[in-house]
Each structure stands twice: as structure tokens, then as C-alpha cells.
């Protein structure tokens, strides 16, 4: 039975507000799949930057960060926001502007336009698996908050959060994320810093130096980055997987595509990266604080909600709970939308209908309806995984390990190297992912981390070798009649992003 105190009342009110605001955004969709998936490519800087930060600062990088620090030291947890912040900075510097100009609906659209349907299908499946894992981690984080606050079983706590996210994702698509992120992410960041200042300033009644002195030296020194015995390989692997692998992130790229222009996408990525890096200190230090106040926790994942309820003032505690709950829901919302969009757009419309059955793709209304319908089974898949193996934090790194291994090289070389071609892309996708799976079983535990770092290097080198070897038969300078990555006519909605452009086939957009 639900047992409510003021924390429970506040969290339920927060869930209700999120549900109402997210659902009301259905009016902005206007029966358009493009508006549902990428908000009609219309969002200004404030929305883009806020949404990118909200996707990065989630239950994995907050609650998961605290639990990892509690168990393994500051670098095990800090690797998450550090890696994600670097990823967004790299996206702003190199990827965002170029990808935004392509006017795509999903990231696998890039693999189709640059390399063809084979690469599109493989990359789409890998990204779907990756994001089911990501959403599972955020459902689990939400479950830990609600089970602690409402005093209910973990199953029901997770289910409540998952259903709320499902309803407003189904209704408003990316618009629901845009409008709920505004109050969710800034509340979370403010709460993190308020809690840190409370403990660092000695307002808890314990000097912060005493708290730091209580932690094992290996938890707070640089050995987490320099000593293999203290997890250095794993920590560096986590940073690399997030900094580079998260560039191949469906939810990040949804927001990049939704920016009104390339300049906005670039600045939004920098804004999101800055906000993410701003959370490194407070969230990481909460794990060290938990070691002092909660030295004998049976479940490290309860450290965050325990601190919020029992060791800070009510105002800070309720903000901490709402913050991580909102951050988790925001990322789960973006993840569900991204997975469903890939299934409807890239798997069903282009691969199954057009390639297998030789039928025309779905019209806009059918595409919208199909995308919405698939949010339901995708929520169920992520829910089951998150319930059976609740591992916030670990799931985030695992999710991007998958795409870092095989999909990062084709995206990067496809954008910046004219000789990139389809055989190289498919080789890279298959070899990188296959090698990652193989190393998972054969790398000894003391060298864990190398199984993350080796596959993308092999994938990158293999891409270059295969591309050069097959250049005569598969020149990479042109694909689908598209030079320099200008979107093909068939993928542009109403031609609105190609005004003034004349395609290689002679079609003019006015």
C-alpha cells in the first residue's frame, strides 16, 4: 500500500505536472510525423540546449553516478557526466551543424543517404538495442526514487514512471520533451548544487574535510585514472564510450535535427555540454558524502534517495527527488521516441515495405500513427530489462559501448572523408560490433575496459582499408544522386529546407 508523506505528495504532484504538460503538447504535433519526431525542425537555442542537457543529465549520470562513486570511487561515477559533456562539446564543434543541414528525421537516415539501405538497417538495429538499454537504466532510476518515497514495491514504482513517460511521449513526441525538460532539468541542476553547498559548507553539522577524510584514499585520488588495479581501464573506457560513442546517440541527434538551423544546433550542443559538465562536482561528491552518512548500505542505488530524504532539509531533498525523477523521465521520453521513430521510419517504411515487399512507403499520417504505436512495445521491452537487471549508471556506458564499437567510424568518416563508401560502412558496423561481443567473453577481468577501447579502433582502421580497396567499384563521392550530403528529394518534407537548391537530377526547389 502507498504510504504518503510530504515527500510523496511532492513527487506525485511533480509526476502529475509532467504528465499534463507533456500531454498538452499533442496540440503542437498537428498530425505531422515530422513535427512528432523532430518538432518540425523549428526549435530555438534555448530549447535545443536545454533538451540536450536533459538527455545527458539523467538518472544514470545522477543516481547512477552517486552509486558508482559509493562503490568504486569518484572517477567511476564522474566518468559519466564528464564523458557526456565532452560528447556534446565534440558534437557542437564537428557534427551538429553538418547533420542539422541534412534535414533528417532519424540518425539511421544518415547511414542510408551516405551508404545505402544495408548500413541503414544494421545501424538502426544496433541503435535500437542501445537505446532500449538506456531507457531501461532510466526506468530503474525512477523506480528507485518512487519505491523509496512512496514505500511501494520496485515493480509498481517503475511501472508508474514508465506509464507516465509513455503517455506523454505518445501524445506530444519531441514537443513533449521540449516543454517538460524546461522545468525538469533546471530543477535537477539547482538541486544538485544546493545539496553540495549544504554539505560542503558544513551546514549538515559535519565539516566537509571530515567527510572527505572518511573516504578511502583510493576513492578520491587519481589512482582511478592511473592504476589498472583501481579501475583505470574501466574508467577511461567509460569516458571514451560516452565522449565518442554517444555521438552516435539517437536522442542527442533528434535534438540536433530539431534545431531551426545549423548554427542553433552547434550552439545548442555547446550549451548542453556546458550544463552537463556543470553537474560533475555536485553529483560526484554526493557519492563521497553517502560514504560518511550511510556507510553500511545494502544497496548502493538507494544512497541518493536516502540522502535526499534523511540528511538534507526538506526543500533540498524534495528538489533532489524531483530532479532525478524528471531527468530520468526526460531521457526515457527521448529514448522511447527515438527507438519508435527508427522502427517506423527506417525498419518498416524503408526496409520492410520498400525493400522487401516493393511497396511504397507509408504516407505521413500512417508514419505518425506507426511511430506512436511502437512506443508501447518499446516501453515494455525497456521496462522488463530495467526491472530484471536494475543497473542505473552501468546501463548508460553499456548502451554506448554497443554503438561506439561499430557505428561511430561510419558516421565520422562518412561526414568528413569523401572516399567513405558502403562496403566500408557495413564492414565497420559488423566487425566492430562482433569484436565487442567476442571480447566481452575473452578479455580477462583484470583487463576489463580494453574490450571497450579496442573494437572502435579496429572498426575505424578496417573502414579505411576496405574503402580504399573498393574505391574503384564503389566510389564514395556520391550516393543516391546526392553530392556533399545534400538531402535527396524523396526524404525532404515539402522541400522546405532546400529552397533555392537544384539537385543533381535537375529538380529545383523554390
Structure commentary:
The chain is an all-alpha fold and 510 residues long. The chain contains 24 helices and two strands. A hairpin with a 2-residue loop joins strand 1 (478-479) and strand 2 (482-483). Helix 21 packs across helix 23.
Entry keywords:
disordered C terminus; 73% helix; Sodium/glucose cotransporter; 24 helices; two-stranded antiparallel ribbon; mainly alpha; 510 residues
Q: Which class best fits the helix and strand makeup?
A: mainly alpha
Biggest pleated sheet:
2 strands, antiparallel
Strands of the largest sheet, in order across it? 1-2
What's the CATH class label?
Mainly Alpha
**Helix fraction bin:** over 70%
From the 3D coordinates, which CATH architecture would you assign?
A: Up-down Bundle
The string of secondary-structure elements, in order, is: HHHHHHHHHHHHHHHHHHHHHHHHEE
Please summarize what this structure is:
This protein is mainly alpha-helical and 510 residues long. The chain is 73% helix and 1% strand.
Amino acid at each position: 500500500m502507498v504510504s504518503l508523506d510530504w515527500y510523496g505528495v511532492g513527487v506525485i504532484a511533480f509526476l502529475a505536472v509532467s504528465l499534463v504538460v507533456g500531454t498538452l503538447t499533442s496540440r503542437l504535433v498537428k498530425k505531422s510525423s515530422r513535427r512528432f519526431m523532430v518538432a518540425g525542425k523549428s526549435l530555438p537555442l534555448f530549447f535545443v540546449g536545454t533538451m540536450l542537457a536533459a538527455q545527458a543529465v539523467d538518472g544514470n549520470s545522477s543516481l547512477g553516478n552517486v552509486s558508482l562513486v559509493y562503490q568504486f570511487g569518484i572517477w567511476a561515477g564522474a566518468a559519466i557526466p564528464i564523458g557526456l559533456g565532452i560528447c556534446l562539446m565534440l558534437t557542437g564543434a564537428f557534427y551538429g551543424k553538418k547533420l542539422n543541414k541534412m534535414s533528417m528525421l532519424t540518425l539511421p537516415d544518415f547511414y542510408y543517404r551516405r551508404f545505402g539501405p544495408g548500413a541503414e538497417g544494421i545501424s538502426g538495429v544496433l541503435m535500437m538495442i542501445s537505446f532500449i538499454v538506456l531507457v531501461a537504466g532510466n526506468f530503474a532510476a525512477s523506480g528507485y526514487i518512487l519505491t523509496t518515497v512512496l514505500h511501494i514495491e520496485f515493480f509498481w514504482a517503475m511501472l508508474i514512471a514508465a506509464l507516465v513517460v509513455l503517455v506523454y511521449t505518445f501524445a506530444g513526441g519531441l514537443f513533449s520533451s521540449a516543454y517538460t525538460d524546461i522545468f525538469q532539468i533546471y530543477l535537477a541542476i539547482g538541486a544538485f548544487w544546493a545539496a553540495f553547498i549544504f554539505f560542503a559548507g558544513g551546514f549538515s553539522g559535519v565539516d566537509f574535510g571530515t567527510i572527505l577524510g572518511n573516504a578511502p584514499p583510493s576513492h578520491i585520488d587519481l589512482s582511478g585514472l592511473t592504476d589498472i588495479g583501481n579501475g583505470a581501464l574501466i574508467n577511461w573506457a567509460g569516458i571514451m564510450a560516452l565522449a565518442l560513442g554517444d555521438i552516435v546517440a539517437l536522442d542527442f541527434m533528434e535534438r540536433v535535427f530539431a534545431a531551426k538551423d545549423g548554427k542553433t544546433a552547434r550552439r545548442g550542443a555547446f550549451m548542453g555540454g556546458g550544463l552537463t559538465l556543470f553537474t560533475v562536482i555536485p553529483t560526484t561528491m554526493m557519492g563521497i558524502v553517502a560514504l560518511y552518512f550511510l556507510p553500511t548500505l545494502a544497496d548502493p542505488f538507494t544512497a541518493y534517495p536516502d540522502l535526499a530524504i534523511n540528511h538534507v532539509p526538506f526543500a533540498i531533498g524534495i528538489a533532489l527527488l524531483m530532479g532525478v525523477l524528471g531527468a530520468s523521465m526526460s531521457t526515457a521520453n527521448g529514448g522511447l521516441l527515438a527507438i519508435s521513430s527508427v522502427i517506423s521510419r527506417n525498419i518498416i517504411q524503408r526496409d520492410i515495405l520498400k525493400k522487401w515487399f516493393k511497396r511504397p512507403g507509408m504516407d505521413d499520417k500512417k508514419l505518425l500513427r506507426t511511430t506512436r504505436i511502437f512506443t508501447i512495445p518499446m516501453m515494455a521491452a525497456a521496462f522488463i530489462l530495467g526491472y530484471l537487471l536494475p543497473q542505473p549508471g552501468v546501463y548508460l556506458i553499456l548502451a554506448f559501448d554497443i554503438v561506439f564499437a561499430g557505428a561511430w567510424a561510419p558516421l565520422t568518416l562518412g561526414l568528413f572523408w569523401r572516399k567513405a563508401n558502403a562496403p566500408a560502412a557495413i564492414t565497420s558496423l559488423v566487425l566492430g560490433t562482433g569484436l565487442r561481443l567476442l571480447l566481452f567473453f575473452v578479455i580477462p577481468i583484470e583487463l576489463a575496459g580494453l574490450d571497450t577501447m579496442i573494437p572502435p579502433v579496429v572498426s575505424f582502421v578496417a573502414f579505411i582499408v576496405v574503402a580504399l580497396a573498393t574505391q574503384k567499384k564503389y566510389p564514395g563521392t556520391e550516393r543516391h544522386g546526392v553530392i556533399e550530403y545534400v538531402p535527396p528529394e524523396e526524404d525532404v518534407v515539402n522541400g522546405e529546407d532546400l529552397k533555392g537548391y537544384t539537385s543533381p537530377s535537375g529538380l529545383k526547389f523554390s
